[in-house]
Fold:
Amino acid sequence: MTQDTISEIIGNTFVNSKIYSVVLVDKHEHVKYLNDTCKEIFDIKTAEKLSQIVPDDILKDYKEALRELNSSKELPAFFNRCHEYTVVKESSEKLSLRASYHLAKYTDTPLIIIIMYNINDELDLKEANYQLELLVQKRTKELERLLYTSQVTGLKSNQALIEDIGKSSMPTLFLIDINDYIKYVDIYGSEVSNELLEMFSQLLEAFNDEKGYELYHIHNGVFCMLHPSEFIDTQKYESDLFELIETVLENPLYIPSIDDTLFIDITIGISSETQNILNHAYDALSNAKKNRKRYVYYHPFHDLSKEHKNILKVKKEIQETIESDGFVPVYQAIVNRDKNIIKYEALIRMRQGDKLVSPFYFLDIAAKTNQYEQISQKALIQSIETFKNRDELVSLNFTQADINNKDLLRTIEQLIKKYKMCHRTVFEIVESDAIEDYQFTKEFVERFRSLGVQIAIDDFGSGYANFSHIMELEPEYLKIDGSLIKDISTDKKSLAMVKSIIQFAQELKIKTIAEYIADETIFNTLLELGADEFQGFYFSTPKPLHE
Structure:
């Protein structure tokens, strides 16, 4: 730590003081600095640990200061009062010391400044107390800044938001989430992601000019706009909501460090009420993401607790189905350009009476309630058992949770080796999952490709994938996202996107599979575009197969 840094933390008044003994110490009791007056009082030249300098009672209070600091979000009362000690030097001289403790921060590391002076010295106590008071004020302001301000964007923090909510009789809150922010962190790293947050905060500030909102950076890619008011101005909020979405979509963010422009999108949860406004805004945001909406407005007459009750209901049904062995593997045919079946995709259904229920009903909830692993493991193992004596290829779906499950992968590897199925098996990975934890995914792909397993990237074209990462995986297949396929006959944008994906794959000698083919018109369009394989209700519905 340089002298300039020490002067910045403590202040020159105390560094050069002939009155004050000053020790700067971290939370591990390591001494970072002690001034000459301190060395003289305690008859030492240097010290690495606080225990080498001060007597036990001062050391004890230092540890008490740490305990209070760790257990409180606010400045502990311990730091606002002086403490008196009697110190006996080796010469038997007794010193009556008054000490105060002050909190500082250096590169996000908490430090404690201990300032002591001899009460019996003939000194200007008024001046001494004045200097201490200045230091207390400086440190208090610094703590308030750290507590109430985002260190990344400079906007107000979550703590400030919580306090400001209580100051308005009818606040309205916009909770704004940058879609797929964690992917930006994975792809570009924390420094570039912080730049993204800074640029987004500037965009918000420009948008908010004269609109009257308070702006906050809550955490990661989540921001907030709070409008303190005495009434709900629905017309204003609706107008501002659409203007905000339009502003974000029309203003991509230039990131200087990578000399690139990033196109981002947002999801918004809105709440207007007096109680639990932040929790309800989070509920609205979650609901919007789940249903792929740009925004959801929560208000006192729209109670999302019904959704929570539904989760508990489905969770119970899932558990009963697991216990009764009621999850059934089904298989949907994949055909070539001549409509001949060449492989099957393994899927899962939940048996309820005489019906087989789609995974759209239960799979997301299973993931939230820690039931997914049991369902997935059963489906994968049963599918391998079904195809061990068949000639067709089988395509198995793997989520990031499956890829991270070492025990499951060990079992799958043993089974496909045992039944000599490695060259008859395709592993499908959803595009977004392929880069969620890229290193794990890459190791997974390399491990099973060495055995002869082929790799397909599912839902390709659905999100914000890093193409360089996807292509490093060298997949044998790209499964084009069904939302593009189903509208290909009526939507020119979908047609152009699918055409581009097929051409892109052909150049890289990767086969394409088109899903969600519902009729002959869609099939013929894809034939003309050059797709290799096809899947959908036009050819076959998912159904059980005999081994």
Confidence is low (pLDDT under 50) at residues 73-78.
